[in-house]
């Protein structure tokens, strides 16, 4: 499966259902279907980038956008603190090869 065909691309294209919390022209935020915290959101860029190893300098604005979105999302979920995770590569625990940031809070 190429990164063009991931579950996240299919969600972005509305081919699969998801509980969408936020969306703009650069990313989509969904509730994780297997939450590891009371609040567990996935911040997913619409541009399909497989891993952090695949980032290029042109992706810095996209990644900055996603990072700046995290505290706004946390506040919208009434969190006063949160944890983020980005898994990279198979040995880093990445299961879907389309970059995404986990936002977790209790």
From TrEMBL:
PROSITE patterns per record: HIT_2
Residue span of motif Histidine triad motif: 98-102
Keyword flag Hydrolase: yes
Residues the record marks as active site: 100
Hydrolase among keywords: yes
Keywords recorded for this protein, A-Z: Hydrolase
Domain HIT: 7-106
Highest rank taxon of the organism: Bacteria
InterPro entries: Histidine_triad_HIT, HIT-like, HIT-like_sf
Pfam families: DcpS_C
CDD domains: PKCI_related
MF annotations from Gene Ontology: hydrolase activity
Protein name as annotated: HIT family hydrolase
Organism: Thiomicrospira aerophila AL3
UniProt lineage: Bacteria, Pseudomonadati, Pseudomonadota, Gammaproteobacteria, Thiotrichales
